[in-house]
Amino acid sequence: MPVSASRMKLYPGGSIRSPEWLALREEILARAGGRCEGTPQFPACRAVNAEPHPETRSKVVLTIAHMDQHPGHNDPSNLRALCQRCHNAWDAPYRRVNASITHHRKRGQPDFFAEAIHG
């Protein structure tokens, strides 16, 4: 999920462009062998970075996902290299909840949607 500027400080070095984060990113990509590590929705994805995705045919760009959705939890066990399809599928429930929370806050309504996702 895209990270807001206010949450950037939770990354090693305070930025997704810091040397610390880039080194951690390279560690995760190396562990993945240049392939998508998959999610519970798509456990056997294994799409190859920079090649056409076997399902979507779009060029694969591996990203690093925080599986618990917390950018400050940078333990390698919480990070996975994911293709766009897997990353978007993993983040979708969080986006829906966040959109509902934001909508209700703007309207001055209580937050009825603060629940754990994927968990």
Automatic annotation (TrEMBL):
Residues 69-89 form the HNH domain. Keywords: Endonuclease, Hydrolase, Nuclease. It comes from the Bacteria. GO terms for molecular function: endonuclease activity. Pfam families: HNH. This is HNH endonuclease.
